[in-house]
Amino acid sequence: MPSSKLEERKQRELAKRRKDILKVVRKMIARSGARDITMRKVAEESGFSNTVVYALFGDKATMITTALDDDLIRLHKLMMDAASGGKTALERIRLVCRAHVRNGLQHPDVYFLLFMEPRPAPPIETSTLTFGDPQHDPYAFVCDLIAQLAKEGHVAGDQMQQALMTQMIWEGVHGMTSLRIASGDDPWIERLDAEAHLELLLDVLLLGVVQRFPGPRSADAIKLLSKSARAAGVGSRN
């Protein structure tokens, strides 16, 4: 058999081993969490040797992150599809945040694994995602939307300030999603339904960001967002 054919066969076998091991890792995370996973346990449960597992993934953080990367890729596509329906940066941010929260509430187990299960941070260079690339990285995609908001004049700030805006938006929608997943219909908390709550949350987050980091056209954004908030009942005493 020619060497090229042997190499192709070898690569197919390695790819199948990786796929089989990652399937086991996902099951183990869902069953007992990421903290209890070890390379040795994965080797035992997958039927491969420790040597094979280490050769394919190198360390626990890389292995766990790789197991979840496909879900992040799907989330990124969902966010990009949502953004395509917006004409302005404000509209695109709102659409993307809606998609993020709705997806999390519709798929709580996957969301928990991605964003709520404690796990070791992987080296950037070992991720299958392209770090910092809006076309591949969900968080970088939101960063890019904030940059578009600044370009349209609704906010102003240097790179660090735009990063802070991104974090505030991301933390806000994640906070709502994770609390809804974790507490469910908690009778101790009086809540609006998720859709109405989300719209109010986005109004408050965006109004806060626009007013805290005002740009030359921030007044236009504030007027638009305030009108939306009043229509939804923000600040109502009734």
Automatic annotation (TrEMBL):
InterPro entries for this protein: Homeodomain-like_sf (IPR009057), HTH-type_TetR-like_transc_reg (IPR050109), HTH_TetR (IPR001647), MT1864/Rv1816-like_C (IPR025996), Tet_transcr_reg_TetR-rel_C_sf (IPR036271)
The answer on whether this UniProt entry bears the keyword Transcription reads yes
Keyword match Protease: no
Instruction: Specify the signal sequence span.
Output: none
Per the database entry, where does the chain bind DNA? 38-57
State the Pfam families in the record.
Answer: TetR_C_33
Please state every residue range assigned to the domain named HTH tetR-type: 15-75
Q: Which UniProt keywords apply?
A: DNA-binding, Transcription, Transcription regulation
Which PANTHER family does the protein's record reference? HTH-TYPE TRANSCRIPTIONAL REGULATOR BETI (PTHR30055:SF234), HTH-TYPE TRANSCRIPTIONAL REGULATOR RUTR (PTHR30055)
Mind telling me what this protein is named?
A: TetR/AcrR family transcriptional regulator
- What organism does the record attribute this protein to? Variovorax dokdonensis
